[in-house]
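Methods, example record. To illustrate the input and output format used throughout this study, we show the complete record for HTH cro/C1-type domain-containing protein. The sequence lines were provided to the predictor; the line carrying structure tokens was produced by it.
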Amino acid sequence: MMTIQERFDGLGRRLSLVIKHLAISQSEFARQLGASPRFVSDVVRGVKRPGGEFLLGIKQTFGISADWLLAGDGAMFGGAGINLDLFRAIRLQVALARAGVVDANECALRLLVLIRDGHLKDVAEPDVLAFVEQLRPCDDDIELVMQLYNGHIGTPDPVIQNRNILVAAVAYFEAHKPIDKVAALAMASGANIRTIAGVNG
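The corresponding predicted structure is encoded as:
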């Protein structure tokens, strides 16, 4: 069993994980907390120990569990349980991304553009509305749903959270589409494969 000192010594590493998870710089993290970048850097490196005001600021600003930050107990965002509304929304977003990218469904592609541009409330076309009603999550995508949920649960702004989740889901399916391997190799190398293949030893 770890001693209190050993658990507290991991605070800098956990704070570094928080900053990485939030996808912001140490300077931006410090700015949002009203702390100096030097102090945050010192805490991350284990040179300084933060006080209660700093820890409370992290909890209130970013929703990070003080128990987890101080001692590694529980989860980064505490034990509030699963936000079922968010989980269900992510399942639908993944199903939409799959329909648009994998199935090339025209209604799904139109919806993706509307969501990207922030105009989802403007949807009035009967075919798109009918598509939404028929949209069903695929159980094969549950691992992706869990990854997106865990990766974005701490995003404080719901609009940014939803857009980031949808962008990540689309990128996942784009990355898993079958590719023309010869063209991909040619693009990666910057060479013309036909020219190289035509050269005799």
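Annotations derived from this record:
The chain has two domains: 4-71, 84-175.
Residues 28 and 167 are 23 Å apart (CA to CA).
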